[in-house]
Amino acid sequence: MTATVPVPTTAALALGDDALVLSHRLGEWAGHAPVLEEEVALANIALDLLGQARVLLSMAGDEDELAFLREERAFTNLQLVEQPNGDFAHTIARQLYFSTYQHLLYAELARGDGRFAPLAAKAVKEVAYHRDHAEQWTLRLGDGTDVSHERMRRACEALWRFTGEMFQPVRGLDVDWPGLEAAWLDAVSDVLRRATLTVPEGPRSGAWAAGAGRQGLHTEPFGRMLAEMQHLHRSHPGASW
Amino acid sequence: MTNSDWPLWEVFVRSRRGLSHTHAGSLHAPDAELALRNARDLYTRRGEGVSIWVVPSAAITASSPDEKDPFFEPAADKPYRHPTFYEIPEGVKHL
Question: What Gene3D superfamilies does UniProt report for this protein, alphabetically (chain A) (predicted)?
């Protein structure tokens, strides 16, 4: 089936699904964040991502149908973004890894003249803030108390194996993927070091690493997330406010 | 960790160039950098501002409600204190 999907649609779905799924995960913090100010910050980031997802999915078809009526195997988001929120450190590590990637990727797309340049040019400003938010918190948790340091270390190590997948080339995106990966490693390593954390040593690709989200293979928690995200629309097809 | 562990900050937002910063509200944050970011999220998300100040609430010296009268109720029989004797030219805003 994948072979029959036109190339620009493949890319729009990949980027759109990343934004949609991470947006939903961040939205799960509503009512549960450690402090009110942070709850608002995470919700703002989620809304930015939802806006990006709507534009991207609309480029590929009907946004509601794509978001609410596709099966798990048809989603092509990275496995990183579907990982559960965990504790606050896990959410921040996921944000650090993903927003650094997204910021570098969108900056490169914005410089080009491809189909995604206008969207990327607009979104790159939002994503720069997401990245700053994640970096600020990584520095404070890593270089904070013994407890926060330990939790941040654990989170960075746990999610490390999901980071190689981000640099699998996506059909239809004119991007220097090895260059993107090198820039990402430099940037993330620099933040981790400044946060007194060590750069994890585990594999980022290969047997013990994750990485087939772009091919529609997902981790176990994703099915539950999708069920929650889609059940209202599936129970009441065509309902509107 | 609860909000009460974090100090309180007062937020001032300049809505446009040429206007002064106006008090927008207050928030909790562990340090000034994060206070600035929280202020951005809480008070300027709909394009309300071009500049933000955050000030530790503890650094503000406020007038006391007990001193209300001597502070804020000047004698009304000195009309020359009130600049009301000239006309404001048309087109002058923010006065």
Answer: 1.20.1260.10
